[in-house]
Every structure is written in C-alpha cells, then in structure tokens.
C-alpha cells in the first residue's frame, strides 16, 4: 500500500467481495447452481450464434442482431460468473484494485452494449411492421453492420468514461463490498474523498447507456402498437405481435431488474434483496435470452432441428 502525499493514510490496493459468504453452509450448492447456469448460458448462446451463422434462413437483420446479443451474453456471463464460482469455493474473496477496475470495465461495457443492441432490435421490429415495403432496402447488410458496430463502440466508450473517472478516486478503507462483482456504486461509496464531478460523470454516462435506449425502445413499441391496432384481422395482429414477443420479453426482463435496482428507492429493501436481484440481472437473464428466443421462434427451432438432423446423418454415413 502506498502513502498518499500529504497524509498519513495508506491507499487501498485490495478489495474483498463478500459475495455469498453469509450462506456459508450452502457454498457448494451455490457453486453447483451457478455452474449449471453458466454452462446453460454459454451453451445456449453459442448454439444461437452457430445457428444464425450456418442457416441461410436466419440470414436476416433480426437474427444478425440476435447473434450479436448471443455473443455479448456469452462474454458478459464469462466476466461475472467465473468469479462467483471461485468465491463459492474460496474463503478469500480478495480482488486487486486493478482487477476490480478491469472487471468493472468489461461488466459495464457489456451492459451498455446490450442496452444499445436492444434499442436497435426494437428499431428493426419497428421498420419490419410499420415500414414493410421499405424494410429490406433500409435494413441491408451494410446498415446492420454499421448499427451493430455503433452499439459496441457506444457501450465501450460510455463505460470507459465512467470507469475511467471512478478509477481515479482514492481509496483508504474500508475495503469490503457486499457484492459478488465489483460494482460502480459500491466503489464510489468506498472512496475516501467524495467527488461531485465523478458522481455527475457516472450519472450522465449511465443515463446515456440506459435511459436513452429505453426511451427509444418505448417510442418504437408505441409506433408498433399503433400499427398493429390498425390491422383489420385478428390473425394479422397476432402474427405481427409474435415477431416482437421474444424481444419484448427480453427487454422486460432486462429493464425490469434495472428499474428495481437503480430507480425504485432502496429504503426498506434489504441488501440481500438487491444482491439477489443483481444475480437475476447479471447471471440469470443471459441464460434466459436464448431460451426465450428459441422457445417462441419457429425459425430458430427449425434451424436447430436441421442442424441436429444433419449431424445425425453425417454420423450414420
């Protein structure tokens, strides 16, 4: 630890994540549960990615963005879950300041990219339903690629802005976080010298990454709902809505937990409740996304059946 110039305090270079240490008798069970979730998450998202790449029927804008989302969820889960698995088997829970900042950067980057991707997927559904005659012209491969690149760059840049600001804060103790992952809010609480500039920077960055895409999604689905209600036949309305159902489910899961975690006042809510909700937000949701898209999507199920049939025939021959 290094002395801070002009003070007798020492800077903290190691933090301790309390994770689920209060459930000491259930550590091995928690390890098994998180391991199964991680395996299902990685397997499911990689399968979606393989199906989109190999099946020509899925070479459409909607599935191109779904492939991006699946790749992101695999990476996102791999940033968070292995650390949880390690903490379940170890009583240490320590993480260096550099390791904490690195994890925070990748964690917030993937969260930001997901927000932007979900907004673009909503825009894609808006064009497909509200502008069907111009859809294929507007959403060509070049435009889809550009939108995906913009999503990734935007999420990473916003994360770099907020995490870069937090990394410059000074920490002199305490050094315990009641979390299973390095958390932006927890890090700022542990800072010895409170910085209004840091708070404002993080607030603006988080608003750009979450609030702006959310407003865009609400507007897109408002237009979609208006267009669906104008369809004369009930069968037509149901078909139009079914193309949005999977995406709308994912958006509800993702933003529902964000709103409860960061928007609703925390008064009267226990730290364990918020930690449990964080598990849903960071661990469970990435697992549910491929399940939601595969169960409610005939094209994905059809592509999976063709892949299985092709693999089976190749083994026989």
Automatic annotation (TrEMBL):
Chain segments annotated as transmembrane: 28-51, 63-84, 104-123, 143-161, 202-228, 240-264, 276-295
CDD domains: 7tmA_OR11A-like (cd15911)
Chief location category: membrane
Keyword Glycoprotein: yes
Compartment list: Cell membrane
Keyword Disulfide bond: yes
Gene3D superfamilies per UniProt: Rhodopsin 7-helix transmembrane proteins
One Pfam family linked to the record: 7tm_4
Domain G-protein coupled receptors family 1 profile intervals: 44-293
Membrane-topology annotation of the record: Multi-pass membrane protein
Domain of life assignment: Eukaryota
This protein's UniProt keywords: Cell membrane, Disulfide bond, G-protein coupled receptor, Glycoprotein, Membrane, Olfaction, Receptor, Sensory transduction, Transducer, Transmembrane, Transmembrane helix
Family recorded in the similarity comment: Belongs to the G-protein coupled receptor 1 family.
PANTHER family found in the cross-reference section: G-PROTEIN COUPLED RECEPTOR (PTHR24242), OLFACTORY RECEPTOR-RELATED (PTHR24242:SF253)
This protein's name: Olfactory receptor
Organism of origin: Gekko japonicus
Name of the encoding gene: LOC107120082
